[in-house]
Structure formats: C-alpha cells, structure tokens
Amino acid sequence: MNKRRLNLLALSTLSLFIIGLDLLKFSQAEIKAVPPIEKQIKLPVSRLRPDIIKRLLDREDINSAVIHIERGWKQQYDEYMQVKLPSNQVIEVNKISQTLKNINQRVGKKSALIYAVPTADQLDLILVLPDKPPIHKRIPEAKKEVLTNLVTKFRNDVTNPSSSRKRYLASGKKIYDFLVAPLASELKSQGINNLLFCLGGGLRTVPLAAISDGKTFLIEKYSLTIIPAFSLLDLQLTNITKTQVLAMGASKFQSLEPLPAVPLELSNIVNNNWKGKSLLNQDFTLKNLKKERAKYPFGIVHFATHAEFAQGSVDKSYIQFWDKKIRLDELKSLGLNNPPVELLVLSACRTALGDPQAELGFAGLAVQSGAKAALASLWEVSDGGTLALMLQFYDKLKANPVKSEAIRKAQIDMLKERVSLEDNPRIRGAASSELHELDELDEDELSHPYYWAGFTLIGNPW
Questions:
Q1: Which tens digit of pLDDT belongs to each residue from 245-288?
Q2: Do residue 248 and residue 219 come from a single domain?
Q3: DSSP codes joined into one string, 70-136
Q4: Which of 311, 314, 349, 461 supports an S-S bond with 404, CB 3.0-4.6 Å?
C-alpha cells in the first residue's frame, strides 16, 4: 500500500514538473513577443544634497563637503553625457591643495580653486588654496533665485554691444559681491593670480571675465578657468608652444548663417607664429580630421564653425562640420584623446541661457571631447570680433604657454583698446567684399565685453 502511494505521488510530481516546464516555455515565448519598452532619457539633476552639504559645513567638515560635491557633480556630468567620464581620483581637499602647490611650482602661476554651490537658501563658497587649509564662506542673501535673476540681467547687459559701461559694470558687481568679494582678502594675501571655478547649476555660464568690483574687471586681476570637477581634470603638464595647430572650419553652410571671416581666421593662425595645417569648407570633414591626426599628433585643434549647446538632452547639442553635425554625445568619435589634444578651440559657438543641460554641455566640453582643455564662447560673437580675439589669443599663447594666461592677455588687449581691425596689416589686402563689416570694428568698439568676455577656458588651465 505504501509502495503504491509512493508510485502515485512520484507520477503526480513528474506530471506537475512537465506541466511547469510547458508553462515556463509558454511564458518565455510571451515575454519575447512583447516589444521592449523604449528607454526614456532622463535629464540629470544635481546629485548634491543641500541638507548634507549644510550639515557638513556647519560642523566645519570641509573635506567631506568637497568629496560630496566632487562625487555629486561628476555623477551629474556622467548622466548628462551618458558615459562614465575618466577621473583622476583627486577629490580630497589635502590632495587638491598639494596638487595645486606642485603645479604652481612648475608653471610659476599661483592657482586656487573656488567651489560655488548655490541652493534655495544660500550660496556656499569653498576656497582651496595651495598647501593651506581650506576656507568656507556662506552668503545667506545669495539664494539661488536671486543669483539666477542677477546672472540673467548681467548676461543681457554684456551681450548687448550698445549697453553702457556703467550698466554692465553695475550688474557685474552684484555677482562679484556674492561670488568673489567674500574671498578677496584671502586671495590677495596668498598672492593668487589664477582662479579655477567649480560652479553649481545657474552659475556655469556666467561670463566671469566681465564681472567686476565696480571699477576693475575680474580678468584684470586673475586668469580664469571653469572646471566641471577637479577629479575630471587631466593634470598632465606639457609645453603647448611646441605643438602644431590643425585649423578647420567653414565659411558657408546650407542652413546656417555664413561666417565670411573664417578663411582669414584659419590662414592667420597657421601662417604666422604657429606651424600647422588649415582645412576649409569641403575639406572640413570628420574623415579628414582623423586622417590628419593620424599623420601628425596636432596638439591644438581649432574649429571655426557653428556650434551650439542647446536645451534638453546631450544629443541636441552639436558642432557643425562641412557635411554633417557632430552631436555632443559623439565627440569621442573625433579621437581627440588619442593622442590627447592639449586644447580644443570652438570660435563660434553659443549656449542656451539659463538652461541647466546646456550648462552641463558647455562646462563639460573638454572632458567629453577627450581634450585636456577647451576654449569656447558662451554666445555667438560677430565674425569680425571673433577674428580679432583669435588673432590676439594665438599670439599670446605662443609667448605664454599657460593657456588661461594667454586668453587673459588677449582679453585685456581688447578691453584696453589695443586691438583694431582697421588698418590691421594681417587683414588689409586679404579682405574681400564679403568682409566689409570688419572695417567697422575699431579698438573702441572691440573694448566692449560683448566681443571678448564670452570666450571661456574650460578644463586644465596650465
């Protein structure tokens, strides 16, 4: 009897097992038949927790606050770029401070790093000095909404070539009073002359060069750089003056405004102080970029073309080549990291004002492209104004291998009315009827920050 029951039980178990296998096969077939849910791209938000930052800084744990900032902003850039960005792993205050000291000894510039973290309740500033304890300042009146309104007004003033000096100095001073003035005495006492800004949302596209104390522009006191995070910098130092320039661009486009000064821009870069090669219009292709870089490891790549850091996800932003648009998420395909490009220059780009995703694209340009640093404009400057700035910049870079100092000197030359397109021997005789507009820009007009303040160095400033 027991044996018969055992046989029946075994038979029942086997039947259930077979039925289960059939059901499993059926379920898997059904699952495979259902089309996959399309992946939705979520735009990144700041990964910083304001409550954590406040708690850490309230107990004067600046090191932990910096680690939280570095990790949070790196994650934000990773998510926007949809890739895990390379990190140098330097995120602790004492290591950042020691790194700054080591670099300062090699390049002769005394650098400091400023973190600016805007929140709904206050602005927190952290100053990291070379081989000195960090300093924290909190500005309760600089709430994020207040800062956003100030930045919008300031950019509107600076990007209007007709705005008065009094107007843009006044609006720029309000930002200076929040962002720099609380740290000014420490910067002066330590002899700092090169500032790296690691900025939170709403501040990443401030034209820092043009903010002022009401009389003197910030660029007159310091060379300036913005960085996405210190841990995202390529800290290798090389002498950029020993490299060559690959200058590429287009003067005409199918659906975009022409850039008639581009031929002059490219020829002046490679035919004067710099060795290199220029490729114009139909030769400005991704294929030719890779071909030329395979022949020679050009350390500077210059694109004189339209580029835009737009609202929305990373694939909305682009650099216009002759035959196609290269989206921001395709920048790695340019191969600028192998071998590494010291400097990528975009001389005619623009960034959507006040858009957090556009800010991430602009501030993350260098690390996303694979270049150690990038020079780009926050707004589209007139063709003649761009030509004037670029001529000065490349002259200064040959004599000043610290990139941030080269752009500083070029900007100062313009604001001090030392630059003119009138009777310029490098332009006269070369200009065609298409370039008649260049004659209209004299040194007085070019001194307005509209023409020089938008050009911003991103990444490794040395």
A1: 999 999 999 888 899 899 999 999 998 789 999 999 999 999 99
A2: no
A3: HHHHHHHHHHHHTS--------SHHHHHHHHHHHHHHHS--EEEEEEEE-SS-EEEEEE-TTS--EE
A4: 461
pLDDT value, residue 271: 82
Same domain, 248 and 294: yes
- 301 or 424, higher pLDDT: 301
Same-domain check for residues 310 and 363: yes
Tens digits of residue pLDDT in 50-90:
899 999 999 999 999 999 999 999 999 999 888 898 898 99
Phi-psi domain of 395 (left: phi exceeds 0; alpha: psi -120 through 50; beta: other):
alpha
Q: Which of 232, 260, 288 is the last residue of a domain?
A: 232
Show the tokens assigned to 36: 């996959």
Phi and psi (nearest 5°) for 457?
A: -90, 135
Q: What is the pTM of this model?
A: 0.88
Same domain, 226 and 247: no
CA 128, CA 229: separation in Å to the nearest integer? Answer: 13
Looking only at the bridges linking them, the beta strands covering 373-377 and 343-351 are parallel
Cα(115)–Cα(127) distance, integer angstroms? 7
User: 244: alpha, beta or left, given left = phi > 0 and alpha = psi -120 to 50?
Assistant: beta
| Structural domain total, the chain | 2
Q: Which residues of 105-137 are buried (b: 16+ CB within 10 A; e: fewer)?
A: eebebbbbbbbbbbbeebbbbbbbbbeeebbbe
Output 262 or 444, whichever has higher pLDDT: 262
224 and 322 inside one domain: no
How far is Cα 86 from Cα 316, in angstroms, rounded to an integer? 23
Q: Is residue 212 located within the same domain as residue 255?
A: no
Instruction: Please choose, from the candidates 319, 344, 326, 348, the residue with its C-alpha nearest in 3D space to the C-alpha of residue 259.
Output: 348
Mean pLDDT of 177-198: 98
- Single-letter residue type at 231: S
